[in-house]
């Protein structure tokens, strides 16, 4: 069951994105002439105002891999509905063997999440959330699952419109 997410964001050169390197991996290729080292960098970018993306860059040098990762991440941006610093509802998602669960939290709770999930949530501009990474701890899949969960969040206004009810009814039941 594959869902497509059409909430991609267009990048303007004026928008300021902040980046966070989640993981750097050194890769060794053995050739006839000896070992060749290269690096891959998993990077998360966001404007800390509801837009976040991830990218993978590979190069012979670490800095070049990070730069390529940032450029790739800017091509994979998604819009996240952030309400009062948290998310509108609970969401569960999966990518590979990594499963993630994110829940809204009360104001002042902070970002309660581990490693790569924390980077994605902070760059999305979420300040209060409870998150749990289940299954695999592979940073690539955890980042993909987190962004997939954030991309599939629905805004309460849209839910109310689809159900033809008032916004207050969405929250009260």
Give an account of the 3D structure.
By secondary structure, this protein is α+β, with helices and mostly antiparallel strands. The protein is built from five helices and eight strands; from the N terminus they run E-E-E-H-E-E-E-E-H-E-H-H-H. The chain has helices at 62-74, 115-123, 139-151, 156-163, 167-172; strands at residues 18-31, 34-46, 51-59, 77-79, 91-95, 98-104, 111-112, 129-135. Strands 1-2-3-4 form a four-stranded antiparallel sheet. Strands 5-6-8-7 form a four-stranded mixed sheet. Helix 2 packs parallel to helix 3 (139-151).
Cα-atom radius of gyration: 18 Å
Report, as a whole number of angstroms, the end-to-end distance.
29 Å
The class by helix and strand makeup works out as alpha+beta
Strand arrangement in the largest pleated sheet: 1-2-3-4
- Figure out the total of helices: 5
Compute the average pLDDT: 87
Shape descriptor reads: elongated
> Largest sheet, described in full?
4 strands, antiparallel
Q: What portion of the residues fall into strands of 2 or more residues?
A: 25-35%
Unreliable residue stretches: 1-6
Approximate helicity band:
25-40%
Order of helices and strands: EEEHEEEEHEHHH
Number of strands: 8
